Records
---
Amino acid sequence: MNKQTFFNNILSVCLSGAIFCACSDSTSSDSNNEGEEFKNTINALDWGSDTTFVIGHKTPDVDAVASALSYAALMRALGHNAVAKIVSPINRETVFISEKFGFEIPEQMSSVDAGTRLILTDHAESALSIDGVKEAKILQIIDHHVAGDLDEKITSDTYVNRQIIGSACTIIWDLYKKTDVKIDNDKAKILLAGLLSDTRNLTKVASSALDSSAWKSLVEQLKLSPNSVAKLSREMSDASHDYYGMTDKEIFLADYKDYEIEGVNIGIASNDWYVDSTMNDFIKRLAAVMPEIAKENKRDILFAKVDAHDPNPDPETAEEMPYIETGSYTLVYATNGKETIAKEIAESAFGELSSEGVYFSATKLSRKSFMVPKITEYLEGTKK
């Protein structure tokens, strides 16, 4: 779907009253009005008599799990039969924070029958979603990424809340506030977990003023100090990058997402490495499993981003920030005649050629806010 089609769809949905745009600087009166409008819109949806399932994306990270859990709870508080599910096993960071904060992980559900009612959080791409999603009935999309191919299923009966900010959990926190639904401490922990993970404690470039407001509110409610939150964020990051006992294939897929962009099947992995002297070996290990993963996932092109980190040489800040980011390596693998396209995308957007099939950018690359938009821009350009 090209940009013009997307904006036409969104305009159509806005005019029908099915999309609700939340703003962080609204007055109390405006917020109350928006909350009532939101509840009226939600109540008018075609809920049916069966359970509606709330799901995040495949290979779920903390934000995908936490957004599904917290939004299902909000829907139940508003009187609707909604249950959170996960599509595939969780990563180590999610295991860590769920045990730390004491919340249960939803049961896994790998596919749905045609007509099943779904609420999607943290994604809008069929390649990232549950099997059967294209034949399901999508009631809502709550997302902080650019539009995906599932936006083509938007109708006047679909509620969409898309804000390009740091975390899907921030959007949900805002809806709790606007509807005056109480956020108890258990829900506050779930929302904060997703927010910390996807913004890295508000340090990622996509972090917004609304993310900051949610962070402040949740941290104050839970009576956490800024230092304790920073420590918790570092522990979450360490857990996400703990590759001990994992195969190279498992490492590659630990933070991996599939996309279909302009008819090209693409997969993007995101990894981190903290030992510069062994970076080349790590890159070779990932490259070795890319052909197998491309075949199994039916991908035309695979990109694997590896963010490099060096020990912080500044003794005054080393305790607070033990590592500093030094850039991103991007590995490229292509098949099915897409080798030239993959190379041209990498050369145009992902830095200088470092070694065969590997590009380096001294600026850290973001999969969500940089890589996917650049790939989309290139592939849309080839269609013109």
Note: Confidence is low (pLDDT under 50) at residues 1-27.
---
Amino acid sequence: MVINMATMDLQDEELALRTRNVNVYYSDNLAVRDINMDVKRQHITALIGPSGCGKSTLLRCFNRMNDLIPTARVEGQILYNEENIYDREVDEVEVRRRIGMVFQKPNPFPKSIYENISFGPKINGYKGNMDELVERTLRQAALWDEVKDRLQDNALGLSGGQQQRLCIARALATEPDVLLMDEPASALDPIATLKIEELMQELKENYTIIVVTHNMQQAARVSDMTAFMSVDRENPDERIGYMVEYGPTEQIFTAPNKQETEDYVAGRFG
């Protein structure tokens, strides 16, 4: 079954994704438990928390990337346009087209800049003008002016920040609705990081963005909503991640409801 873009109820039209009692297992080991959150359309939602709390694991649930891990199992519901993306009839490839992903380390294909952008649309049977699509997505990723005269050059010759923006353009080329970013600036220098942050602000006019970040200043700068995840500090060996608190970013950073959130934001642990 292909996901229907027109199935949203009016009262839910502001929501891009909803999770309901999501649990993630690796073999018999529970990694993330009882995640319930509503992700607003055309907002940036940040996932923060200490290492090992399941932020990236949760992020990969949103486009079924965990399916690629043989031992991984997801229970509960993740609703996209009111359909559970984990229903058996749903095509996981279509899910990943609608919900794109940018990884922590830039991973351009060892092909030309042009081919990096055109590869996904070709596979998906794109029938439009490929030159226009390549230019449009490179402009969206604030990269066109830097590469327009060398589109046939190998993408591996770009700088790290340029490679990451190319990967963002590559994700946009399949015309997704949601963009997942797993620490997209952690491997970049401060100038390249600022460009990625500015780009995210521009992209949220048309896309819903969920970003994992260890940088709390970055989360405070770029996100509208923040989910703080942690692990049971009294039983650290179990490493079961859970969501402590989820709300508007300003509230999470200035007036959180939970003491654990305040302790993390204040740097008392992490």
Note: Strands lie at 15-26, 29-40, 44-48, 72-80, 83-84, 99-102, 178-182, 208-212, 225-231, 241-248.
---
Amino acid sequence: MNHEQEFLKIQNDLKSQISCQDSFKIEDLRTVAGVDLAYWKQENQEFAVCCIVVLDYQTGEVLEKQRFQAEITVPYVSGFLAFRELPLILETVKLLQSEPDLYIFDGNGYLHPRHMGIASHAGLLLHKPSIGVAKTYYKVYDTEYTEPEQEAGSYTDIVIQQEVYGRVLRTHANVKPVFLSVGTGISLDTATKVIQHFVTKESRIPSPTRLADLETHLARKEITEN
């Protein structure tokens, strides 16, 4: 069995466990983790660093930051990105002192040909509710999306073969939207509320993944310069 067949089997086995229902009450949400990775090449080897930033849901205060770096050994294959990133994500989670109530990933979840983007795959392995927020559109089955209105908070749903795969959300007026999808253990409406809650004046991207993204750039610079 080659890599791709093996990955396909794992995704198909896991996808029935995805839940697009809320597994928690939003008023009970205390801590939320943002997860992102940055890559670089050294000679002929590829490396990445994963950064996780944990925030207080109510105040937005940063409670904890952790990172883990390693060589990437799985080649990139479209639709199977999670297999490259999961080993680093799981190692970074092990370093956390706290246990986040919810994870937000820079990437997709249900918005994936088999609903198994990084947010869904990691959420299932971590047994935690999860959300995927992507900055660019991942086109599934050649389906285009409809632009939402220009007001902040406007959205359109991404409907593929009569099923809602995700949501195009305008987090700031007259700014490019983000592409939101359920990972697992959360409804799309609650995921939208969580993302909107974390959007600040600084960026169209919610603060957990925005801060994780900034951390990955700092970490990569520090590692490659040393």
Note: DSSP finds five helices and eight strands in the chain.
---
Amino acid sequence: MSLVLKDSNFQEGVIKWYHEQSAGYMRAVDELQRQFNTGTLEVVCLQSYNPRSHIECPIWYEVKSYDYKRGYQVVNECRFFSSHYIGRFTHDGYSIIVNPRYGDVFGYLIGYSTNLYLPMGSSELAYNTENNSYWLIALIWKAMLNKALTVGQIPKEYIFVRKNQKHFRGHLCINKHIHTNLCNATRFYCSYKKLSMDNTINQTIRAVYGILKHKGVSSVIGEFEAYDKYLESMGVNSVIDNASRIDNIRYTRMSEPYRPVLELSKTILNNYKAESTSSGGTKSDVSYFIDIAELWEMYLLKLLQNNLSQEYRVFSPNSNYGTNLLDCNMREIRPDILIEKDGRVIMIIDAKYKNYSHFGKSSDYGIHRDDLYQMSTYLYHFGAQNKSIIGIFTSPVENKQTDDIHFYSANKKHRIGLVNLEINSASGNIQLIHEFEKNYINQIERELDSIKD
């Protein structure tokens, strides 16, 4: 039994009645929230930075009415809501599935953001077909691993080796040497450091590759077969006894690109372990959620980097360590996208996966107060009092008002406004999406050109 939702459905929701087993889905949501609060339900992180404190629960419900059945009060009508996550969760035979709000456009977004090919029209297949529960998550794992292999290096670590060998190396283990080679002067029992690939990162990659093959998605990850055999030939084990070992990895500058794929691997390992240990004859299923708001940010960042003039530097502070609003490393702030010219930030873009169609005179009819204050803090921090800077919100819906840019009353050098990239009406039409992208880039360039000082 499945309850199917669309992401960001936090207004109308989906109704389930008593005869539709509403109580079963309520129990599933309760278990989801429990696992979420305890940290046992992982949310797939597409980037290196995604603190748990910033993640909200993907699904919740509200009881609308009660009834009496056989003398007991029961839930008659219950409404289920979803946040900006897609994925699925299964408990006690009840599956809750959250599909992309924009359907086919999701495939384009994730493809553009991660260089991952996701065929148009196939995104919902990844969720609604029971046998394909691992299909989408395998595609994302593939994209993350490809990026890590491209940007970073194959992780290696020094390990201690104690070995009785022909040639002297490192330090002689006196006790072992005497005990082993008392009558053999041609051998040396030595202890030395050796650079090895047999570490947690490579072991995890091999273990997850084996799981995904076992789950029937070999066609998705088949390109890594040679890489898996190479790691095996270098002595890398393919068994991870405890997924919590991933939390203890100490990343270096060269291994940092592996962090996202290792976090996703932990989710896959935990789900596979839960399936293997499920009891009571109830089939378990993979449970995972992906933050679409994070994907929207990644998409806008790459779109701007690919299309703006080279005189502008477009980057995300989230890929590093952010910056601090106060002295003594207090109150870290992380705007989504910064645009610099000549070493000075002139535009801040906040990617909002919300229905912000116009700026509005108040938060009841436009940009929420919290988002407005957050952007004002960014402008204060990154902008000089006598220099021009502009803060832009970008949502995936149509702008109801043109030139929706406004000056601050106390500083006419600072502006704030809304410039949207409409994708909700594209319906999988790639040509139309490209037209929307072009219009968006043109609007951003006009605002950048308007900054003269």
Note: The chain has a mean pLDDT of 86.
